[in-house]
Amino acid sequence: MNKPIVAAIVAALAFVAPASAQNYPSRPITIIVPFSAGGPTDALARILGERMRQSLGQPILVENVTGAGGTIGVARAVHAAPDGYTLSIGHLGTHVINGAIYPLNFDVVKDLEPVAKIASNPMWVVSKNAIPAKDLKELVAWLKSNDGKVTAGTAGVGSGSHFSGVYLNQQIGTKLQFVPYRGTGPALLDLVAGQIDIIVDQASNSLAQVKSGKIRAYAVMSDKRLAAAPEIPTVDEAGLPGFHVELWSGIWVPKGTPADIVAKLNKAVTDALTDPAVRKRMEETGLDIPPREEQTPQALGAYQRAEVKKWWPMIKAANIKID
Ligand code: ASP
Question: What is the spatial distance between Cα 155 and Cα 180, in angstroms, rounded to a whole number?
């Protein structure tokens, strides 16, 4: 083959070559938050995004694509170009549980590449102050004596606040009336205003309102108390032993994103998670930061697959309806 033809082929191949880390990122990156602004997933995206900008040299724009328990936002990311410019943030609900509830046009495991596990956070049971209960046992008695009438705010079917509420129903034999919002940010506003009765919430979402006495927390759904609110007992101490849900969060990119771009993104996330200012902000809201060895793409992938194995049979048995 003569030289000009070879050069033309090389040039053409360079043109169609997939995105690579060489000059990545050369424009802003979007992180899709599948819940409302002001909620815990949104807050996490903003805290990390701000610090990742320093490592990557490009802004991380937060886009809230809400609805259907987070499935709409995750679908948007799954179907985006696999070039590192669209990230998907989510949690046990959006990236595991929803796969067992919704007829999705994607696979929560196979159609995304894991980047890093970023945080975990126990759920806890919170209520409006007007409810007369003073501890978990009294709350359970109140829920039972008002069965069928109690409203519980959620971020939509399949969200952390929803499946944890379904789990509470199973534990104590009640039927909560779920009120879906596009995220637990707006659900919390309604709880504080007394429009709904309870939320089985992510602790990081409602910690500040509990601390300021605007709402009441009864028990942390973990075997250890929260460092940020040590006065609140665990469910084991308060009367529902073993009623644990840890809502862990992660970041993913569309399947097919080049490995060197995933590595660059992972480095930006781990840089953020070692930054003392970021750690302080996360710890203040009750978020646990995973140990370094759990922050790799491989560790997130393995953890997500293990969580699918653990949760899907239980969720399918619960036969949760989406409408
Ligand atoms: N934490 C919420 C949930 O899944 C969603 C949100 O971040 O607003 O219940």
Answer: 6
Max distance between CA atoms of the chain, in angstroms, equals 87
The mean of the pLDDT values for the chain is 94
For residue 170, report the distance from its CA to the centre of ligand 1, in Å.
21
| Residue 185 CA to ligand 1 centre (angstroms) | 8
DSSP state string for 152-163: EEESSTTSHHHH
Query: pTM score > 0.85 for this model?
Result: yes
Amino acid at residue number 219: A
pLDDT score of 15: 46
What residue owns the CA closest to ligand 1's atom 7? 41
Q: Among 89, 118, 205, 247, which residue has the most ligand 1 atoms within 8 Å of its CB, making it the best to mutate? A: 205
By alpha-carbon position, which residue is closest to atom 3 of ligand 1?
160
Helix (H) or strand (E) holding 218: strand 215-220
Q: What is the pLDDT of residues 179-219, one digit of tens each?
A: 999 999 999 999 999 999 999 999 999 999 999 999 999 99
Q: Give the whole-angstrom CA distance, residue 155 versus residue 186.
A: 9
